[in-house]
Amino acid sequence: MPTPSEPARGTDAALRRRPAGATRRARRPAPPRRSFPSTWKALDALAAAGAQVSVRVDDIDTQAEVLAGDDHLAMPIAGLGLVPVLLEVAARIDAGTLNPLEIVERDGIDPVTGSGMWRHLAAPALPLRDLAVLAAAAGDPLAANALLARVGLPAVRSRLDELGLVESAVMDRFRDRRGPDDAPHVAVGTAREYARLFASLVNADAVSAGVSAQVAEWLSLGQDLSLVASATGLDPFGHDEDEHGLLFVNKTGRADGIRAEAGVLAGPRAGVAYALFVAFDDLSIAHRLRVHEAFRILGVELMEYVF
Predict the structure, then answer these.
(1) Which residues contact 71 (CB under 8 A, 6 or more apart)?
(2) Is the Cβ–Cβ distance between 223 and 229 less than 8 Å?
(3) Structural domains in the chain?
(4) How crowded is residue 305: how many other Cβ atoms within 10 Å of its Cβ?
(5) Average pLDDT over residues 200-217
(6) What pTM was estimated for this model as a whole?
(7) pLDDT confidence tier of residue 241, bands split at 50, 70 and 90
(8) Residue 219: partners with Cβ closer than 8 Å, 6 or more residues away
(9) Are 147 and 89 in contact, with CB atoms under 8 Å apart?
């Protein structure tokens, strides 16, 4: 495996575009070189138990590779594949070709009963911008399907190509059940490409500065802080303005036997873009908790790196 890289001292992150309200204190001297030993141990144990694991961590100031393991493998990422959909929606709103207040009727969307908030709300219709918030913050599958139906799979795939995510793909909408004629997964991706995508979001390089800022703002509302983010101590219902100078933006993906997360974590000393994907046999609660613990361990060592 490549040797983890030390973050450069005194690097300037002034060009980084942050979600609304996020602040960053001046950097202290960079931490010593870290090799993420606990993360490697946890991920090696998962792989030995039969799980497929892919991980990537990059320093967002120096673009140096910090941690990588099988980061080239395309793996199922479930709801994490919503990020390219949000990018396409934001790009069209920014270009003036999509009205953010366009009303979408829930009855016109194929039902998804497994999760989500919109199906529990009294409102039978919502504007596109509200659907983007629901999809980003709560991973709402109905809202995500509505957005995808509005912009179309071909446009999302073209956007991925434009962004250089050639090994990643959005394949289908969310479904309660997948038949033989359906795509096997909502989306697939590589940890390398998704870490780079999140770095480009906070560096204002994803499509444009305005589009990057909008998508980062939507994602900063995300309430799933149970995996890597569990180590941050942030409030899952309001973490876009942290008093300790922690910048955090993430998106998770969950399905049977799939856990995926990508994001950006930045503190006073350094900032990182990360992605961790695990495909495993979800045979028991113990199997699932072991996977979740590996995500948490990565989060702890990322916090040590940035603080």
Answers:
(1) 54, 55, 56, 190, 191, 192, 195, 275
(2) no
(3) 37-306 (3.40.710.10)
(4) 25
(5) 96
(6) 0.88
(7) low
(8) 19, 83, 86, 136, 201, 249, 250, 251, 263
(9) yes
